[in-house]
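Exercise (ungraded).
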Amino acid sequence: MYSKMLSLRFPVQVVNEPIVVNLVKDYDLSFNILKATVYPRQEGLMVLELSGHKSNYLKGIKYLKGLGIDVKNIGNDIKRDDAKCFQCGACTAVCPTGALYIKRPEMEVIFDNSKCSACELCVAACPAKAMEVNFDRILLE
Amino acid sequence: MAIKKTTRTIEEINKKIRSGKAVVVRADEMTEIVKQRGAGAAAAEIDVVTTGTFSPMCSSGAFINFGHTKPALRASKVWFNNVPAYGGIAAVDAYIGATEVAEDDPLNGVYPGQFKYGGGHVIHDLIAGKKVTLRATSYGTDCYPRKEYEKKITLSELPYATMLNPRNAYQNYNCAINLTAKTIYTYMGVLKPKAGNANYATAGCVSPLFNDPYYLTLGMGTRIFLGGAQGYIIGPGTQHNPNAERAKNGTPLSGAGTLMVMGDMKQMDPKWIAGVSMLGYGCSINIGLGVPIPILNEDMARFTGVADEDIFTRVVDYGNDYPNGESKPLAMVSYAQLKSGMIKFDGRDIPTVPLSSYVRAVEVAEILKTWIKKGGFLLTEPQVMLPTAKKS
C-alpha cells in the first residue's frame, strides 16, 4: 500500500473533468479529500490523500499530470522554520494527523511532512509562529 | 563503613570553580546519580547541580531608558513598534511589558485572536539587534517642550535596557484540561473539548525550583542564567506562596514559589528570549532561565536528585472551574506520566501536550554547567533568602 498527501492545482480547462472518479475507476486508487476549492471557469486547488498499489499510484499521477494538473507533495507546501521553533510541543495538541509529534524520551518535537494534511491548525496554534504555509492563498478564498 | 557527612560552603565551591575543579552536573543527570548511588555519595562528589527552563513567562518586561532628545522631551506615552509601554516613570524611562499587544491588533475581535506582535516580540527584536520604532508623546513643559518624538532605535544605541521580570520560574503549574463541549483557547494553549488533551507547562525534574523546593540556597543576589546571559534573582516573585501544599519530598503540589529576576538585555541572546503568541489569549514571552544549586550538604543532594515520578501537579478544568475562580484539583498526575504522552483521567487515556520546552530546558542547564566548569560563572551568596515554609 502506497500513500501520499498531495496538492493538485487545476488549470481552468480541467475543472470540469471528474478526475477523482477516474482515479478510482481506471487506476484502482482510493482517496481522501481534505480540502477542495474547485469552481467552474476558475483555477482550482484540491488537497487529497491518494493511496493504492505503487504502480497504480504512479500511473494515476501520470494521468493527472497529462491533464495539465500541477501535482505536488503537500509536505513541500508546509514548512517549519527551525530557527523559530523552540521545541515546546503546543502544536501537537491540534495536529490531527500526527505529523507533528513528540519523540520520547528526548521530548523533541518532530515534523513529519509526509503525514501533514495542510489543515493549517498548527499555523495559528504555534506560539513561536514557526509553521509556514506556502499555498497560493488566493485559491483557497 | 559510614559515609562522612558532607558539608561545603559557596566560598569553597567558588574556589574549586576558579581552579577548574568543580564537579558540576545537570539536574536530570543528578536524578540518575542519586538513584544509583544515594544522596550521601552524590553529596560527597558533586559541587553544583544546574537547572533550566524555557517556558512562557507572562510576568516579564524591560526597563528602557532611551536617552534625552534635542529639544528635550518628557515622554508621557511611549510605544515600541506600536506596542504601548508604561511611560509614567521619568522623562525618558519606560517599562515594556511582555503581554502588551500592538495597538492595532484586532485582539479577540476575530476569535480566536492571533496576537501576532506584542511586548515579548519587541524585547526579542531588540535583543536580536533589529531596528525598533520608538514613538513618544508629551504634553510639553517649560523644561521639556517637545511634544512628539519618533525614531528607529537599536539596543546598542540605547543608554540602558534591563530586563526585570516580576514573576518567573513558577515552581509548579497546573495541568489544564477542558471539560466543556467546545474547544477553548487559553494561556495553557488550545484545549479540545471533553478532556481531549491535557496541557502542562514545566520541565519537571530539571526545572529550577523543583531542585531547591524550600529555597534553601537561593535568594536576593543569586547569579543565574537569564536569556543567555548572567542575571540575578532579586527577590520573591509576585504570587510567591511558600505555604502551598507539598509532597513528602518537599516539592509543592501547585504553583508555590516564584522568582523576581533581572539581567542586562545587552548581554542577552535572542535564542533565549522569544516573543510568543497564544491563540485566543494574547502575547507573552518565552524566557530561558537556569539556576545553579550548590550542593551544600546531603539534603541538597537529595532535593536535586528528585525524579519526575516524584513530582506531582493538579489537573484543573479550564473550561468551567478556572474561569469561575474555582480551580479545584480533579486529579493528581506525576511529571513522569505527563512526559510519557498520556495520563489516565476518568478512566480514559488523555494525550498530554507540553508548553514548556524540555529540550531547551536541558540545553539551558547544559550551558550553565559549561560556564561553571570553565570558571566563567561564580556562584553568589544570597543576601536575603526568599520566604519559605517549614520542612515537613
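Further reading is listed at the end of the chapter. For now, observe: Residues 61-163 of chain B form one domain. The longest helix of chain B spans residues 27-45.
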